[in-house]
Design goal:
Two copies of one chain form a homodimer. The first copy, chain A, is α/β, with parallel strands linked by helices. Chain A folds into two domains: 148 residues, Aspartate Aminotransferase, domain 1, CATH 3.90.1150.10; 227 residues, Aspartate Aminotransferase, domain 2 (3-Layer(aba) Sandwich). The first copy, chain A, is 38% helix and 13% strand. Chain A contains 13 helices and 15 strands. In chain A, the strands form four sheets. In chain A, strands 4-10-9-8-7-5-6 form a seven-stranded mixed beta sheet, with helices on both faces. In chain A, strand 5, helix 6 and strand 6 form a beta-alpha-beta unit. In chain A, helix 2 runs antiparallel to helix 10, helix 4 runs parallel beside helix 10 and helix 5 runs parallel beside helix 6. The radius of gyration of chain A is 22 Å and the shape is globular. The first copy, chain A, starts with 14 loop residues before the first helix and ends in a 15-residue tail after the last helix.
Chain lengths: 431, 431
């Protein structure tokens, strides 16, 4: 649990101090590029990013112009067929990868399946005794389900472990280490370079799920020498609900990866309609079916909304502001949290924090009801079963003063006990 | 090759006769529900259906209202989380399935992988000697690639055979028969009830790819007792480029199918975030990751564009008009086709025809250049390597007079030899 000032240097002691920080914020102008409903402080961009203003007009053009007027010819003339690579190249700039190394395809879940399947197969071709995959036991469930299913189909073991034990557990049985870069629940940022190196020292491949890090902090995949990464388009990339996912594989490895979902767009010559599959060179082999162009166009607008920070300091500036916002929240919330017996489960140390802060509500507190009470007052965070309140701080559109105001509302909801009126069975279904 | 009148009763001998047929067409009014560019006769709805007029406004509402204003709460309040089932229920009405039996998810390619994998596993649990999957050797390539990959991962054999040999080849080694309902290239409609029955008599399961039949003819999956079906959202369902796919499994079978892409939305209780996967009851288990809401909303508009025919006779009326249009085209085109040495490869008999007519161009004809010459004159069909011209006749927006006019243009392009100006290396990338 953080105390005032412990996580982000100086924490302002009043609202005016927050306004002053906003006045000095190099990214402040980007807020205007988003549609944000009046009266809402949106602390759930780690689940679904808000709407970039450019998206509606772009989609209207894709629908009315490219599809409506251009019809099937737009696969060529409007660049639809290239869109998975074009958007992938933009995402590459946000994750420390090179041009041509990232492709947009399918969902994060499906891409993770492809990735682990291909990686395990490759490893076992070299050493059949590598029959173990390690994953983080606090992983977002879909990752764990898919890893389990892939491992079952490959006849290898999946072991879900604490990330702090990983270095100790890596040995010559481990084929793949598959980790979430940021824990979806407590917001812990895992050390990608160190854990990648540890995996390599044990002869394992490192697969990273960037769902909660892409777009909110520098990742440096190539520099860290990671092997494969998958990520989500609808969180910090603001690509819209259920936006397609992306996948990257290191150039030294990609052409050795035979992913199992061998669809026509992963073929070396899709329009030859050849009877036999021949995997494309490079990351294109991770494509499968026809890409969902409308959702992809929205994703491109979302990625552009992050790239708009490049002239303003880019991901370094985004990361600095992200840490300032999470630090500010942790500092300001410490009082109400202590008074009511909540506990922060997000690491205090900046290098260990992603873009969110999570509070655990025990005792007679009902975290679901607290989140609903906040939403009713215009502060949108989310609840994660069984007992966690999550607050995401996306630096592109949030202000320091939003953090101040959100904490005032949270303090009031807790102090007055008004959250009790929001007890209910209905579940939030945000991701 | 059809002669005049052979395929669809009387073929009008002039343009006025076609106009008269249009005047009597019960579906004629539906044409106004689509955006069709001026000067274009669109004979490629079997590759990408055109834009329903309702789609742009609906997407603007989803983007600006549901996402922009409703933000993450729209997963509940705007019914996003239910959308794969809501749209699935609508599709069910078009394929002869019941409510709750169809779900929208992923791409056709990915769904086919899930389907064959689950079906083979189930079969082998009952009889490990069933180690063979049969598919049609003229299958759309992506189907064959995915079947091959799934079979390889399961250690069973895939054999690509001529559909006319299937009944002869079905024996107690066959686990699964996986066929395209309509051949993407020559437009042949396979006999789903008869081939399903033959599969069952041999103890095999029947999986159908409805990409080229859903929305253009009655299918009757449940009545035929088929086992699993997958289909495409962007052809006759008019769901937009790369629209998500759908999947159906017979209720007697679905809960025995453990598909391998076990993502959180296929879980029995996705929002419990349980560490272990427990497949949902029913078709929901074929979901995997978070659904692409924008593309799904467009698909719903597309499906609605077909359901709009229900009060006008529904799929029976659609099928009757489809056969009239393909028959009319075959009759009218017979002259130019014979003069220039093209050959129709689409079956003459109505029960064996899907919604398209395909011509093979041999000799010194360049089918790619012919298609380009037609497109330059506003008649949009497509080319399929190495030598096929395809013309799709979607009954919701095409008129008999369009068929007449298209044939005049084709005749002129062939008779004048002007197609020779359109020779080029660039490939069409339509699907």
């Amino acid at each position: 649990m953080t105390g005032p000032g412990s996580a982000a240097g100086t924490v302002p002691s009043d609202r005016a101090g927050c306004l002053a920080l906003d006045a000095a914020d190099p990214l402040a102008g980007l807020r205007e590029t988003f549609h944000l409903p009046d009266g809402v402080i949106y602390l759930d961009g780690n689940s679904l990013g808000p709407l970039p203003r450019a998206t509606a007009a772009r989609l209207a053009e894709v629908i009315g112009g490219e599809w409506g007027q251009g019809l099937v010819g737009s696969w060529n003339t409007a660049g639809w067929i290239e869109a998975p690579h074009r958007v992938g190249d933009k995402i590459a700039r946000l994750i420390g990868a090179g041009p041509g190394e990232v492709v947009v395809a399918d969902s994060t879940s499906v891409n993770l399946y492809k990735a682990v399947w291909a990686a395990v197969q490759w490893q076992r071709a070299g050493d059949p005794r590598r029959d173990l995959v390690l994953c983080d036991r606090t992983s977002f469930p879909t990752d764990r389900y898919l890893l389990a299913s892939a491992c079952a189909s490959l006849g290898v073991e999946l072991r879900a472990v604490a990330v702090e034990d990983v270095e100790h557990l890596l040995d010559d049985r481990v084929a793949v280490l598959a980790l979430n870069h940021v824990d979806y629940r407590n917001g812990r940022l895992h050390d990608l370079p160190v854990l990648t190196r540890a995996a390599h020292e044990a002869g394992a491949l490192a697969i990273w799920d960037l769902a909660h890090s892409a777009g909110v902090l520098p990742i440096g995949l190539a520099e860290a020498g990671a092997d494969i990464a998958v990520g989500c388009g609808y969180k910090y990339l603001n690509g819209g609900p259920g936006a397609p996912s992306f996948v990257w594989a290191h150039p030294r490895l990609v052409d050795r990866l035979d992913q199992p979902l061998q669809g026509w767009l992963g073929h070396r010559a899709p329009f030859d309609f050849a009877p036999e599959y021949l995997a494309a060179q490079g990351i294109s082999r991770f494509q499968c079916g026809t890409p969902p162009i409308l959702s992809l166009a929205a994703l491109e607008c979302g990625v552009d909304s992050v790239l708009a920070a490049e002239p303003l300091g880019g991901l370094a500036a985004i990361r600095a502001k992200s840490l300032a916002l999470t630090g500010l929240f942790s500092g300001l919330v410490a009082g109400p949290v202590a008074r009511h017996g909540l506990v922060s489960i997000t690491p205090d140390a900046a290098p260990e924090r992603g873009g969110q802060v999570a509070l655990r509500a025990g005792g007679d507190l009902d975290p679901y009801a607290i989140v609903q009470a906040l939403i009713a007052r215009g502060v949108v965070g989310d609840f994660r079963a069984p007992d966690v309140l999550r607050f995401g701080f996306a630096p592109l559109y949030l202000r320091h003063v939003d953090v101040w105001d959100a904490v005032q509302v949270l303090g009031e909801v807790l102090d007055t006990g008004r959250w009790r009126r929001h007890r209910r069975a209905h579940r939030s279904v945000v991701t």
